[in-house]
Amino acid sequence: MKRSIVLMAVAVLTMLTSNAFALPFIPESVFDIRGDVYYNDSILSATAVTSFDDAFASHNSGIFSALSDTTPLAILNNWTFAPVNSSPVDLFSFIQSGITYTFTAVSDTITLQSNQFLDIDVLGTLSASSTYATTAAELLYDSQAFTTGNETFSGSIETNPVPEPGTMVLFGAGFLCLAIYIKRCGRQDKFPSRVIES
């Protein structure tokens, strides 16, 4: 009986801690980015972004629907996208309602590279300064070269809130303990302890 109570307590505590101490994911939302960009070579042969200029984030949908069209986009690091990015890189951040959002590129795929255009599909994460849990996100990056010699970029970042593996493990452990408890209670009901009469 004591063992069953312990198992039940573990199950309840596991499920409670998995909810009480986990930050919520960033809701499914989209924001846009734009600005000027400089590459290490012509847009046709470029393998890295050396700097951005006049970069802004702007509203689109979800929690970013109220984002100003002239929200400054802080560029954090240069970005090498070819060959394929092999380690996470913090690309840029911006502030909305006192919360700093940071996009980190994890992997990238060039979908188009020509004399005039460069398109890259970037998988990464969006973090939100202890307000939300780090959330999966995708950046669709587009860049265009003009005859004047300058190059611009634009893009959309969409969040994809899915549970982290650790959270799923905690829920799984809780439900497993609960199932064991219910099964043991069932056995005790089916086979009641015998009372020896004197």
Strand and helix map with partners:
Elements: H1 2-20, E1 30-39, E2 48-61, E3 71-72, E4 74-75, E5 79-80, E6 89-96, E7 99-113, E8 117-128, E9 132-145, E10 151-160, H2 165-190
Antiparallel strand pairs: 1-2, 1-10, 2-3, 2-5, 4-6, 6-7, 7-8, 8-9, 9-10
Helix pairs in contact: 1-2
Mean of residue pLDDT values: 81
Number of helices, counting only DSSP H or I runs of 4 residues or more: 2
Largest sheet: 10 strands, antiparallel
Shape: elongated
Approximately how much helix is present in the residues?
Answer: 10-25%
Assess the beta-strand content as a share of residues. 35-45%
How big is the Rg?
Answer: 26 Å
The end-to-end distance, rounded to whole angstroms, is 25 Å
Helix-strand sequence: HEEEEEEEEEEH
Strand-pairing-aware structural class: alpha+beta
Number of strands: 10
Number of domains: 2
List the uncertain runs. 9-20
What does this structure look like?
The protein has 198 residues and is an alpha+beta fold. It has two domains: 46 residues; 131 residues. 23% of the residues lie in helices and 45% in strands. It is built from two helices and ten strands. Strands 1, 2, 3, 4, 5, 6, 7, 8, 9 and 10 form a ten-stranded antiparallel sheet that branches. Helix 1 packs antiparallel against helix 2. The longest helix has 26 residues. The chain is elongated. The two termini are 25 Å apart. About 6% of the residues have low confidence.
